[in-house]
Amino acid sequence: MNPGLLKNANFRWLITGSMLSMVGDQFTLIALPWLVLKLSGDPLSLGLVLALLGAPRAIFILIGGAVVDRYSPKTVFMLTKHASALLLGALAALTLTGTATLPLVYALSLGIGLAQAFAFPSATSMMPRSVPSEHLQAANGATMGVRQVGMLAGPLLAALLLAIGEAGSSDGGMRALGIAFAVDSLSFVISAWTLSRVVPLPGATAPVPQNVLHAVGEGLLAVWRDVEMRTCFAYWGLVSVLIGGTMQVALPVLAKERLHDGSAFGMLMAAHGAGMLAGMALSGVMAKKTAGKPVRIGVLALSVDAMAGLLLLPLGLITAAWQGNLLLLALGALVGLVQVAVFTWIQKRVQPQMMGRVMSIFMFILFGLAPLSSAATGWIMQYVTLPQMFFGSGVVLVVCATLALFFTPMRRIATA
Questions:
Q1: How far apart, in whole angstroms, are the C-alpha atoms of residue 40 and residue 380?
Q2: Statement: residue 204 has pLDDT above 70
Q3: What average pLDDT does this structure show over 68-95?
Q4: 3-state secondary structure of 22
Q5: 83 or 122, which is more confident
Q6: Which of 172, 254, 305, 328 is 20 to 30 Å apart from 280, CA to CA?
Q7: Rounded distance, CA 41 to CA 34, Å?
Q8: 8-197+210-412 has which fold?
Q9: Residue 398 has what pLDDT?
Q10: Where are the domains of the chain?
């Protein structure tokens, strides 16, 4: 890691909070689908919960970006952390006391999704305003790498917690699920404290005092005028709608129906996190070898998507955890390979005063469209088998990446 970066106090606080928050989030990522499946046993209910989690994200994330630019990333981010801590604390209490019901889970998921709508753009806008420009790519790479360590450690710890809870409990592991939500709530409290220690850079862009809806329109117009960015965002949005629900809904159902174990689901997610960490490490090696040279990032991203589609094809056929772990390890490595480069490409392409709005549009593309995909996947899975679901998603991803490579400007996009 860059020695100058380690001397930066802002970076140290940001990366510590990011690590804590990511580990905590993984507990909820494992526990929430498992809780819904225990309460209902229905993929459609799981799709609905994930849709409610994502719906406010989709509706308010663009407004969230404008709010970030108007007030400040730090202020907005702090508020979202406190709100998330309260909501997850309530979910933990309901689960631990055995009073959790689907309607209550729906309501809390809606609230958590609303907090995330403002958290995503504020989080991605913090780094450029807290770390000098010359260290930005290194800071992004280090932060994403540390977050990936959290995405590896979090699911492993959650899997251990669920394994212990399900083995020695008469309540089917509900107590373990409650503890998982409590861990995430505590992680938000601590990461909010680390965030409070961050001091914006001298001369950092001042908040933009303008009408929020007008600011949203300016952000959309800025992306629309940038042909390469517009094309990338449109492609990623299409992929998010067509493929996102498969990983969010079908994967936990696969763990329940084929592996019959909440800890196995945690191991699958840990394998994906380990793969992303390895992919980011490889990305760092490649970045050093290509320093000062333009990289065809568009071709790289589309090639990665095509290979990811091929890995999805057999995922629905697994009969043992190790098979799924290998596939998700490879899938995560492909994602990690391009993630840092894509984030840095966007951040360096956008003017600082537009950062919150453009990053909110990017977050909308990646996560805001997820509720459509989750709800659709939950409905489709009433009529198709798991192998058909994964095979179809893999085919769609390969086709989308191939068409984009030959018929859009993405193939010409380079890092410089």
A1: 17
A2: no
A3: 88
A4: helix
A5: 83
A6: 254
A7: 9
A8: Growth Hormone; Chain: A; (1.20.1250)
A9: 95
A10: 8-197+210-412
